[in-house]
Amino acid sequence: MAGSRVDCKVVLLGKAYGGKTSLVERYLHDRFNAEMPYQNTIGAAFGAKRVEVDGKIVTLGIWDTAGSERYEAMSKIYYRGAKAAVVCYDLTDDGSFERAKFWVKELNDNEEACRVYLCGTKLDLVQENRKARRVDYHMTTDYADEIHAEVIETSSKTGFNVCELFEKVAEGFARDPANKQTVQICSSVPQYPSTSLSKDAENFQVTEQGRSRGGCCS
Questions:
Q1: 11-56 pLDDT per residue, tens
Q2: What's the cofactor (predicted)?
């Protein structure tokens, strides 16, 4: 990210088809393309966005990792040093929640200081058909209490709770005394140019300037 800084490294983890890339697309671009065929993330994709918290700016560096188990070792490389992890699971797929538990254990074993946010995706499908839900909300909150995490259910299709999720991440980072020297006062933030989000071995771009270009948090 030329000419800019990343205050908070955020990694997205979860099973393939779990909605991670759509979540990033909605947050950074405020868009969702239901007609686009699924493309498996190879390696990881990176993008960044600046968020104001308590009169200061936090730059979130967001890594969207591959969900396929064959890229598992590669995903471990990307979560090293992460300050926050958004562990995604598909509300219509109970197996994806079991996979989320795997990633939580990996983080607890290797990145103890990383804050965990459990993110249920595809809420719109559950709202359209309650019988489609395969992951019980109360079960996830009980598990979150156990691992000291937060739970939020989102819909990338409608945008519901997407910005709220990343705002929670930024607030959790900025308000942690350990990160006091990292965040910037708003008036001192450099006006660096947009940077692109690139996906390894794929042509995939998301710009940093979601706010100025009509992003969901604008």
A1: 999 998 899 999 999 999 999 977 654 455 545 688 999 999 999 9
A2: Mg(2+)
Contact (CB, 8 A) for 150 and 168? yes
- Residue 164 CB burial class (10 angstroms; 0-12, 13-18, ≥19): middle
What are the pLDDT digits (tens) for 58-86?
999 999 986 555 555 666 787 899 999 99
Q: How far is CA 86 from CA 54, 120, 170, 194, 203, in A?
A: 22, 10, 12, 24, 24
Separation between Cα atoms, residue 61 and residue 63, nearest integer Å = 7
pTM of the model: 0.80
pLDDT of the residue at 39: 53
8-188, CATH topology level: Rossmann fold (3.40.50)
